[in-house]
Specification:
Length: about 280
Amino acid sequence: MEFIAPRGYQSIYNPSIPYVGPINGGLRAGMSIYIQGMMHHHISRFHVNLQCGEFDGCDIAFHFNPRIQFWDKVIFNTFQNGTWEGEEKVHEMPFHKGRHFEMVVVVNSEGYQVNVNGRDFYLFQHRMPVERVCALEIGGDVVIDTINIIGGGSMAYPGGNLPVSDIPYSDMIPGGMTFKRTIIIRGMVPYGADRFGINFMVGASQDIAFHINPRIQEGLVIRNSLINGIWGEEESGITRFCMTLFGTGMKRQKRLTWFWNCCKFFLYNIPWSNAKT
C-alpha cells in the first residue's frame, strides 16, 4: 500500500545523485529531514548540504561531510559569503561501506541535531538564521532511497485539526477513519516519563482497534487491540531507534512525529510496525 504524504510532509524517492531540490516553504525549527540510503563499497566521501539556494556558490548553513579515508571523520561546516568557515570534526564514523543507513537531521533552536542509525551523533549549532535555508543538496559516493522533509509548508487540515490542551485527551475523528487516511500527532516526552498510550477507539463500544503504548523505562513499544472487553495478543519490540525518539533524561526533549496510515505506524516516517487487523 502506497503511503500518501500529508500536508507539511515532502517526499523524494530514489533521487539521482548529485541531487539538489527545494525545501517547500523553507526550513525552520521543529522540522526534521529523514534520509535513507546506502554507501558504496568504494566510497571515499559524500555530503549533505542545507543551503540558501539551488545554485553553485550559494550560502550553505549546514554542511555534513563523512570522509572515509586514512582517518575516518565527519566534517561539519558553514559556507558563507564565498568562504568556508571553521570546520568542526568528529573522529568517529557512523556509516559503513556497503551498508544501508538511516539519518535524521532535527532542526531545533540550538542547531542541527544529527542522528544516525538510531543514535545521537552530533549537534551542529546555528551559524546563520535557519529561515534562510530553502534547499537540500546531496552529492558524493552514496545511493539515496528516500528523502522525507517533515513539518514544512502548512500543517493545517481543513475540518481536521484537533488541538490538544490537556492529557488525558479524547475526541471524535471528523469523518472517522477511512482507507489511506493519515493522522499526525506531534508532541514531546517530558523528563522522567515512564509510558504513554494512544488509542484508536470504535465509537461508543469502547473497543480499541489500535493501541500503542511506548514504555520508555522498559525500552518497549506495545501494540494491541481490545475487542469486546478482551485484550488480544500483544505485539512488542525493542529498538535503538525507539529509545532515541522516546527516551528521557536527554539534554533536550525530543520532538516526535507519528504517521499512522491504515494500520501502518511511522516514526519520523520510518515504517516502524504494522498493526494486525
